[in-house]
Amino acid sequence: MHRARSIGVKLHARMLSTGKPPTPGHCVNSVKLHARMLSTAKPPTLGLCIIGDEVLNGRTLDVNTQTLAQHAFAHGIPLQTVHTVPDSAERIAHSLSMLTQQHSAVFTSGGIGPTHDDITYSAVAGFFNRPLEYHGETLARMHRMIPEGMVRPDPRGSGAEQACARMALLPRDARVVFPCDDLWVPVVCLGGVHVLPGVPRLFRRMLAAYVPRWWPGEEGMRGVRGLRRVLVATGMRESALAPVLERLQGKYAAQGVRLGSYPQWPADAPKSARVVVSAVGTAEHSLNACRAELVHLLHGTVLDDTE
């Protein structure tokens, strides 16, 4: 992993110092590294890059992180790192350089529209040293699904038609998947990076349709079990229960259980639920044993995970 990170940093440093994309040889090395990372025995993880000035300046609330986190949790592949970057090719490349070295797969959200600041496809193409080219099936779906009277894509048409066509200008050699039959918007995949739209409604729908199709067959992710969570509420103060949690974490860590505590602050929160303790893992017997000890040692009560 250290060697992978070193090569990724050198690759990114070359891009920043020269202003040029990496050579094909560098790109091939980065793709080979990614393949080797996926083939290791280390449990797979996800990274997410949220792209958009509007998120960073507070105009738009990011809800896509939670959406991906929920899907990742359900499928047993935790989301571990989230970057939020502006509409900047350099910042997107910097984020991808770090995320692709650290995680089995990376998702992006945002920046795939028709305007000048929608640069995600070009940034991803540049990062992997691929040219952009019009994707025939995407153009055809756009023509078929965009209602008459609205602007349709034409790479040689008017300014508006060319702008519309930009949304079908994709990195060469990318895998293009249409997870929703009634949407022309694709998921674009290249080098372990999966590009999705930023509109929450589209992100949610496409992810729900895409993940079950992609997850089971992805190298390094076969046979991964979904994560489970058990919750125990207690009236103890967090400082009082801290030694108990530390001891139990040490006991169950080898079984893949992670513990966390979350104070409850609403004015109407019952005193018996001052703190909610969470235990997360994949092995049901380990979680059940840990939950039983939490209930006993914290004088707690079991909560439903939806509460």
From TrEMBL:
Domain MoaB/Mog: residue ranges: 47-213
GO molecular function, one term: FAD diphosphatase activity
Highest taxon, organism lineage: Eukaryota
GO BP, one annotated term: flavin-containing compound metabolic process
InterPro entries assigned: FLAD1_M, MoaB/Mog-like_dom_sf, MoaB/Mog_dom
Name of the protein described by the UniProt record: MoaB/Mog domain-containing protein
Organism annotation: Coemansia interrupta
Lineage, highest ranks first: Eukaryota, Fungi, Fungi incertae sedis, Zoopagomycota, Kickxellomycotina
